UDP-glucuronic acid decarboxylase 1
Amino acid sequence: MKRVFWLIAGLNRRMMKILFALALIAYVACEYLGMSVNLSIERGEIKIEQIIDEVSLTHSSYPLNVFSQKYPPVKFLSEKDRKRILITGGAGFVGSHLTDKLMMDGHEVTVVDNFFTGRKRNVEHWIGHENFELINHDVVEPLYIEVDQIYHLASPASPPNYMYNPIKTIKTNTIGTLNMLGLAKRVGARLLLASTSEVYGDPEVHPQNEEYWGHVNPIGPRACYDEGKRVAETMCYAYMKQEGVEVRVARIFNTFGSRMHMNDGRVVSNFILQALQGEPLTVSKQSGTSTRGEPNVFVYLFSSDLVNGLVSLMNSNISSPVNLGNPEEHTILEFARLIKSLVVSRSQIQFLPEAQDDPQRRRPDIRKAKMMLGWEPVVPLEEGLNKTIQYFNRELEHQANNQYIPKPKAARMKKGRPRHN
Ligand SMILES: NC(=O)c1ccc[n+]([C@@H]2O[C@H](COP(=O)([O-])OP(=O)(O)OC[C@H]3O[C@@H](n4cnc5c(N)ncnc54)[C@H](O)[C@@H]3O)[C@@H](O)[C@H]2O)c1
């Protein structure tokens, strides 16, 4: 104690000031670090996207040089915890975000995709990584591979894409799902089916809970997808009951985010693209007005929220279907105005005739996901939209540099002999 006293007494005023300043700097640094750690934990999902964006931007030009490739950071998992995971449709919008999450969590991921609507660019930042494999394969053909879990996402998801070749859409959802269930049975893997809110059709019950059987037109233009997914669910439960395959079924509601197709004809991509290009924001008559006496409302989930829901469902013990969606409702007009203001666009809003069988109102009842998975959406709509707008801006720059962005073709209407699908 005496020594400390002598030491303090020996310090002159200048040294005291320096010591005080150092202590202050140390305090501020600790506070800042603590805050940023907390922030990155809270906004973990957005953080994954930022890391991937940074890495992707460093090698956004083809051809890839795999030797100089830098990968996003990957956790180390012991042999016991590391799973071999197959993601069908893993080069698509949702599949590629799921790939990012599972890779960064330290698993071995195999992506299988026929690149109908998916793109190699969506997963290019993993090519060459020892935990990653990309296989160009159509799920309509059998696949033999050793895996522990299968996320079965392969299927076109937006109306122009699934209506382009309805027979192929049906085959992908039926034969493709049978093939994946057969694989799951052979290797003892658990399979999660990416089903859809479209199984509820144009619902008469609002909001839709998992008990609702739906209201689907079996011969309408959307039937190839809606009925394809319904039968895919049926197949999952047949394999579960008859063969003991472990299945999980996620009924996914409208989701948006980076890597969604620029031209997929859905509300979010349409509005962002139109606003960025200064074109009128097109709203179908039925959805803008409310001729049925109720407002036409839709809900939008950000991709990272969906990915977290899919992973929790896969690792849960819930084998019955679970809704994954955002219950926060918005009218289409509200949405158009919000996007206009975020993009700071002068585009007008223009009304178009209603499309056939367009569902008028959709809202998930997510009580089951909340109660049994502890899952609910956390990313605010504006934050998700801003990220998506940034992505679309970058894509438009690519386009301006003559880089290829696939556009959906018009639905096929054939005369004469049909082509083999
Ligand atoms: N995005 C949404 O809002 C939404 C909503 C409900 C359900 N879903 C479901 O989630 C899954 C993924 O949707 P997404 O939005 O990422 O669509 P997406 O079109 O971006 O991805 C689908 C992927 O599957 C691939 N694919 C299609 N047919 C295939 C085949 N026969 N063999 C192999 N690969 C094939 C495509 O090339 C693409 O990469 C789909 O099953 C979809 O039905 C999505």
The first helix runs from residue 2 to 10. The chain has a mean pLDDT of 84. The two ends are 88 Å apart (CA to CA). The CA atoms of residues 312 and 373 lie 6 Å apart.
